[in-house]
# Entry
Amino acid sequence: MQADTLLQGQIVTDTVITASDVEAVEPDTASVSLEAATGEAVGQVQTMIDGVFAALPRVAVAIAVFLLLWLVATGVRSLIHRVTPGPKDSSIGIVLGRLAYAGLLLLALFVALTIIIPSLKFSAIFAALGLGGVAIGFAFQDIFQNLLAGVLILLRQPFRVGDEIISGAYTGTVEAIETRATFIRTYDGKRVIIPNSQIYSDPVEVITAYQMVRSQYDVGIGYGDDIDEAKRIALKALKAVEGVMEDPAPDVVTWDLAGSSVNLRVRWWSNPKRANVVKLRGAVLRKVSQALLAEGIDLPFPTQQILWHDQTEATDGDRTRQREGWPVPKSGAPEPRTIAGQLASGGKTGP
# Structure
């Protein structure tokens, strides 16, 4: 009995010792969590570093490919500048070269990204660019419209730098054609910047498109003058003016029967430059007018004739003798009357 009791007590004592030992060696939960998080972070960093080192060969290849395509883009731009008609620094060559250069650089960037990130597909890139392009297109609609119009103007070349044009209310010499706007210098020394979309969509008159231009002016002669003789004199004087082209030949035509004169239209061809046209116009008018006056041809100015009736003569009120051609009634024509007779009759105006 006693032995059993001691044995049981020993067992109890051993059990108590074992529980305390276990409690003493049980680890701290917070410490375990911190160590686990630290280990996971270190593992992720190590994985990223390993990934970077593993991607270094692809990055090197991507950089080499990008540099190669950049050199190709530079060469293509220079080639376009050389093969484009006109001088090397012409506007069309510069624009086409820039477009080709930008397109090849964009392609080089796409290729480099797909080398670095093999999972990246061109379709995903183009889809993202498509959605972004729609938004950008709406935001910069006017800019893109002017850009496209400028490229079309440079490609088709309806006019060139140095040409004289009329666009809307502006007339002048083209100074520069850029992708956004066209610069012209007006004849009074002002610079006007016209958007390319307006020039491309609205009518434009190119004054110097050809090597010659026709000018004209109307000269009035008296109704009593010989029309054929006046035309001969004017044409002879016109041909003698320096600067008037012989082919096509100048001419003088009867143009209008005006209120105070018979108008002859004098027409001639010359160099289309504005300075030459203005100078030649003054010389033509001076020579033609001097020649007509020297031959006794009248150059009338508008006149107005006023006829007064019912004044002092008895015939003033006689409609059958008036030059205006008033209709004369068959019966009941008023009798001629004078102002004195009206005063004597008390101011009656009737017959």
Q: What stands out?
A: Residues 78 and 144 are 25 Å apart (CA to CA). Residues 29-83 form the longest helix (55 residues). The chain has four domains: 68-139, 158-206, 213-294, 307-351. Confidence is low (pLDDT under 50) at residues 1-20.
